[in-house]
Amino acid sequence: MEFVIIAFGLFLSYALIGIISTVFGIGKPKNLPPGPTPLPIIGNLHLLGDHPHQSLANLAKIYGPVMFLKLGRTTALVISSAAAAKEVLQKQDLAFSSRHIPDALNAHNHSHYSAVWLPVSTQWRTLRKILNTNIFTGNSLDTNQHLRRKKVQELVAYCRKAGLCKDPVDIGRAAFRTTLNLLSNTIFSIDLTDPYEDSGKEFRELVGNIMVEAGKPNLVDFFPLLKKIDPQGIKRRMTHYFGKIFEIFEGLIEERLVMNRSKHEDVLDLCLKISQENPDEFNRAHIKSLFLDLFAAGTDTTSNSLEWAMTEVLRNPHIMTKAKHELEEVIGKGKIVEESDILNLPYLWCIVKETLRIHPPVPLLIPRKIHSEVKLNGFIVPKGTQVLVNVWAIGRDSTTWDDSLMFKPERFLTSSLDVQGRDFELIPFGAGRRICPGLPLAIRMVPVMLGTLINCFDWNIDAGRRDKNIDMSEKFGITLQKANPLCVVPIPLD
């Protein structure tokens, strides 16, 4: 009780200082970017709502693509155009390369060991080197192509079994299970879930909960005085989720050490070898956080992208027809798509790019933070400001895209825009030195899984709903999930 009284008193003092500063403009920097007038104490927090990416996109229509917000005791810069994103992610990449770390990500000290959250440093470069030179290189991915083919075959077998029983398939869950086992085989040389049964629910829920909690607006991040109280319980829940996943990883690491790493040449062996050679730079905590980064980013983003793509194709029968025709012409009806086929399937690839445009896996890129005052587009951005790049808004910018809210894969048939961080109109994986290292895997897996599901099955909407009534509501987190899963009945074509 005494702690609560003291904390409440400190909070009131903090609030009084905030009111005085707001009213009299004490300490207010000159030439800030435009933005909505903040309220005392809370600033602009009330404007975020349950879907901040949408709220911020609407505010940007009023205040412009470089927008300044006051969020409690913190400040935020919101970037909502391709030109402004290029300035931040390419031209001034180094100045904007540090991370704003949500308090929840400090659970189990994860932010101290994670390649996602560490600042640009020797430690960060070591982790990125492991990812870029040993896991996501072209050679490494080519070596494991047989493994990805096997996992797609298992996905087809699962869907065929469901179809014969006329059971609906939860597309997101099936894609998650496929990607989970792909990554677990790449890292540990084992399946973490049965590929032929509807299992793996607990792990998916853990990963999904982590992504939702990490992206959820947290009062602690806007009012640091509240850290010890954790009023929303977000860090408490994250501590539980991290603990459960780290426990799984710890067991697999211990099992491998007992086996003396003799029969595997997977990512775990590689990490244990690097840790043995450089224990100060890369220890057990780094290994577990690296695996969490890989599973959280790799499984959730890929499965969400596939689910959104299937949703859009099912909502638009003419797109399904075109995709089926292309697949039949190029590889033959009912066959599994190979990675080597993708270059010969331009319309399928257009569907994937259009999905990533209108449903980016990460609607607000992982937040950045500037450690010294920066000049941007003639404005002054104060030290300590967090930076949010609204990829969701950029992908729906009507000044860039014709019919920006319509799902039109054809727009990419005559466009050279790609998703690899060079074209800032389309940056679903980010850009610059902080670009998502898993991009090379994602752009192989999503079109192969999507093309295979389209080519091997017809699909009936579950519960007899019409295509136009498929639910499109979003569930906001670090990643953009469907609020309600896509459940459809596969009809095997053979």
From TrEMBL:
<dbReference type="InterPro" id="IPR017972">
    <property type="entry name" value="Cyt_P450_CS"/>
</dbReference>
<dbReference type="InterPro" id="IPR001128">
    <property type="entry name" value="Cyt_P450"/>
</dbReference>
<dbReference type="GO" id="GO:0016705">
    <property type="term" value="F:oxidoreductase activity, acting on paired donors, with incorporation or reduction of molecular oxygen"/>
</dbReference>
<dbReference type="GO" id="GO:0004497">
    <property type="term" value="F:monooxygenase activity"/>
</dbReference>
<dbReference type="GO" id="GO:0005506">
    <property type="term" value="F:iron ion binding"/>
</dbReference>
<feature type="binding site" description="axial binding residue">
    <location>
        <position position="436"/>
    </location>
    <ligand>
        <name>heme</name>
    </ligand>
</feature>
<dbReference type="InterPro" id="IPR036396">
    <property type="entry name" value="Cyt_P450_sf"/>
</dbReference>
<keyword id="KW-0503">Monooxygenase</keyword>
<keyword id="KW-0560">Oxidoreductase</keyword>
<dbReference type="InterPro" id="IPR002401">
    <property type="entry name" value="Cyt_P450_E_grp-I"/>
</dbReference>
<protein>
    <recommendedName>
        <fullName>Geraniol 10-hydroxylase</fullName>
    </recommendedName>
</protein>
<dbReference type="Pfam" id="PF00067">
    <property type="entry name" value="p450"/>
</dbReference>
<keyword id="KW-0479">Metal-binding</keyword>
<keyword id="KW-0408">Iron</keyword>
<keyword id="KW-0349">Heme</keyword>
<comment type="similarity">
    <text>Belongs to the cytochrome P450 family.</text>
</comment>
<dbReference type="GO" id="GO:0020037">
    <property type="term" value="F:heme binding"/>
</dbReference>
